[in-house]
Amino acid sequence: MLRFGQGDATAFETLYARHKGPLIRYFRRQSAEAHAEELFQEVWMRVIKARGNYTVDAKFTTWLYRIAHNRLVDHYRASDRRMEQSLDALEYGTGAGEPRALGHSCLLADAPSARTDEVAFRRQQLEAFRAALDALPADQREAFILREDGGLNLDEIAQTTGVGRETVKSRLRYAVSRLRKTLEHWS
Fold this sequence. Notes:
Number of helices: 8
Number of strands: 0
Low-confidence stretches: 80-113
CATH topology of the largest domain: Arc Repressor Mutant, subunit A
Structural class: mainly alpha
Mean pLDDT: 79
Largest sheet: none
Shape: globular
Distance between the termini: 43 Å
CATH class of the largest domain: Mainly Alpha
Oligomer: single chain
């Protein structure tokens, strides 16, 4: 980001390539598809506008997700609606930086030799996981997504969401516990 602030356009290309996948997935998991694209673009516009004033106070990823979190909060305040829960538009898999599927990257079999019943079973598992993730309270879901898909640690999630480290630990613990309980019959 510092290089981009000094006029290096390739530095922006590197930042964008590295963070576009996780950032769009963050918005897709927190809002409707139509809003996700708009919010995604707005965050990158804010990054571009901030290039000359950027200072290193935290990791770039933490700073980026803080902008994304604030933009999402502003969006829902402005529309006076509670967060929509939509994972239907997620697209899995083409190339570097694509989804890790929140720890379930092997749920969909891509091999042409995979048996139809196995593929169907794995699709059912993925849908069950999506439903379980959708059922989490918004604060737990966000903490889980930031950790698993965004790769942020506890302190970075705390800084991103504006809550304490212990609150993040609790949210993650409750999220994982709920997901395990909901999905226990799939083990």
